[in-house]
Write a structure and sequence with these properties.
Order of helices and strands: HHH
GO biological process, one term: translational termination
Shape: flat
Radius of gyration: 22 Å
Number of strands: 0
Helix content: 55-70%
Structural class: mainly alpha
Pfam family, one: PCRF
InterPro entries: PCRF, Pep_chain_release_fac_I_sf, Prokaryotic/Mito_RF
Strand content: under 5%
Organism: Aegilops tauschii subsp. strangulata (Goatgrass)
Keywords: Methylation
């Protein structure tokens, strides 16, 4: 019998984002998210200080704008996680109302799928950038 390699989508692929990220990877992402939130708050303080020199202001502003898109994703993910907590408690606590429980369970499934999508998107933004991405290139096309 020939050995067959099963198809597994790469993490950077958009082929299948329905699978959950491993728990240890989610923990690492949480740590990175906290660091980014702290750095963003620090940079915001630096920008708002009236005594900051123009060089410090410029550097802090540039770094802050680099983190802006990542911070938006983090805020979205945090919001979705709070929504999931609320829906989970609604599903477990609304025993007497069957319709309410079913509707909350349906919304919970949608929220979990959205959370997975946000986690994958955030994971891609947290990956280190390649130095070659910012460089110019020359492309020669011959007929």
């Amino acid at each position: 019998a020939a050995w067959r390699c099963p198809y597994t989508p790469r993490l950077y692929s958009t082929a299948d984002m329905s699978h959950q990220l491993p728990a240890n990877l989610v923990q690492i992402m949480e740590q990175r998210m906290k660091l980014i939130e702290q750095k963003s708050a620090y940079l915001q303080e630096q920008i708002n200080q009236p005594a900051a020199s123009p060089e410090e202001y410029s550097r802090a502003n540039k770094e802050f704008h680099k983190l802006e898109s990542t911070m938006e994703l983090i805020k979205e993910l945090r919001s979705k996680q709070k929504e999931i907590e609320g829906l989970t408690s609604l599903v477990t606590n609304s025993v007497e109302e069957k319709d309410m429980r079913e509707m909350a369970a349906e919304e919970l499934l949608e929220a979990v799928e959205e959370e997975k999508r946000l986690q994958h998107e955030l994971f891609r933004t947290l990956l280190p950038k390649d130095e070659a991405d910012e460089r110019d290139c020359i492309l020669e096309v011959r007929a």
